[in-house]
Amino acid sequence: xxxxxxxxxxxxxxxxxxxxxxxxxxxxxxxxxxxxxxxxxxxxxxxxxxxxxxxxxxxxxxxxxxxxxxxxxxxxxxxxxxxxxxxxxxxxxxxxxxxxxxxxxxxxxxxxxxxxxxxxxxxxxxxxxxxxxxxxxxxxxxxxxxxxxxxxxxxxxxxxxxxxxxxxxxxxxxxxxxxxxxxxxxxxxxxxxxxxxxxxxxxxxxxxxxxxxxxxxxxxxxxxxxxxxxxxxxxxxxxxxxxxxxxxxxxxxxxxxxxxxxxxxxxxxxxxxxxxxxxxxxxxxxxxxxxxxxxxxxxxxxxxxxxxxxxxxxxxxxxxxxxxxxxxxxxxxxxxxxxxxxxxxxxxxxxxxxxxxxxxxxxxxxxxxxxxxxxxxxxxxxxxxxxxxxxxxxxxxxxxxxxxxxxxxxxxxxxxxxxxxxxxxx
Length: 426
What we know:
Largest sheet: 8 strands, mixed
CATH class of the largest domain: Alpha Beta
Radius of gyration: 26 Å
Distance between the termini: 86 Å
Number of domains: 2
Strand content: 15-25%
Oligomer: single chain
Order of helices and strands: HEHEHEEEEHEHEHHHEHEEEHEHEHEHHH
Shape: elongated
Number of helices: 15
CATH architecture of the largest domain: 3-Layer(aba) Sandwich
Strand order of the largest sheet: 3-4-5-2-6-7-1-8
Structural class: alpha/beta
Helix content: 25-40%
């Protein structure tokens, strides 16, 4: 039986046109499709699976849920619905025990979409096929898996035997910015594409036809009565759990056009030496909009003065001011001898770190480039108040995992002193 010819545009929202084009060209190996309720990310992935199998007579697919018992009523049902909606039932055969969907290709050979629970990661080792190889892997509700190490174990097992392989993870971003999948989505990788969508991005006609008016009315009700829940559930935004220190952070690429407009730039350095990382940060501030841009970070463990000097030269900062951790006067003096004439200690006053943190938190927005300032992106988003036994949070700032935060705070101490007024000059 010859395979039908399908047009993706008939079955996929325009929101995913570029993603589908990328997948068809195998431009990336990994795809993270995050989004809120009704974003069509899982529908799009199921269509991709069917089309991929029909296009390649050697292709097979494995669809994973963390817990096997959740498959039937969720992702298996989703794939069956896509099968019916696209009139593919005469080409594919459904098997309920074990759960799989098969396709007999033009050579009379059987290809397969197999559904597995990953209660134990080594279950994936049994994913051998009658014909061909595993070309596609779909991890539904990606955030429910134990972490990237678990996913990587599976990929090492099934992602071999053929010339191409695509991993697709679909998920609703968890509330906490510290969730492993939210961190993964912020971590730039050349072989990974991250796409976030929500129902409002689709044409109204598709919203009404595919989601239905009751869904849309419920979404509007939640938007009016519970706006934060709406942002998380329907728009797919990690809204936080209440303990995040910086709720004004935006993680995105900072364009060359924006960088060219920077007028007020500063550099900061936090010493780490052996046990903590040395942290160098470069940032810019727009006083009119009160937006802080962190566009470059660097550093590492086990760095001594000569290593730090190489770091300073690497970023061409040897003739610029760099505000440093004042607790290391000997290190500052040695850096000056090595040629970094602009290094100077940060301001000393007992309450000044708190003033600095308050200043950072009160900026209209802190924009951090996840590629060129990855360390700051991680620290600012993961930094949280300590939780007490009753579930509330302490109101003081934890002194840990804040090295690039501190270097940014040092960099802007003059701005902070000016903002806080005469009380911190005494």
